[in-house]
Amino acid sequence: MYDCSYQTGRRPEYKSRAERQIGEFLDSRRIPYIYEKPTAVVDAGKIKMWYPDYSLQCGPLIEYFGITGDRHYMDSARHKLRVYQENQYDVIPLYPADMIPQWPNNLLSRIESLLERRLQDIRR
Questions:
Q1: How far, in whole angstroms, is CA 99 from its chain's centroid?
Q2: Which domain CATH number covers 95?
Q3: Of 15, 109, 110, 121, which sits most exposed with the smallest number of CB within 10 A?
């Protein structure tokens, strides 16, 4: 399922409470996104379709890695982030430890920093 709730007013069916909180925050700031937008990546020489948690209209992806203490899951998360980087996608990873009281401001700062960096690259 993919849906830009900011544009349609419909809510995606989030897979976790934290994903819902992130979506609601993006909605509250009127940051357009698509939840689980099909995204093509090349992984080990093969084209695969992945579904990042949030694809922001302004470009970056947000992935929430919500399982802690599972080595296989974290290895998979590191692999996913490496593949995104190799495919030149900007990704903002979030983990349970990031969901502290000031997480919305931290996320906004990370989005702003990434976009500012892109703008500086364009200006060069």
A1: 14
A2: 3.40.960.10
A3: 121
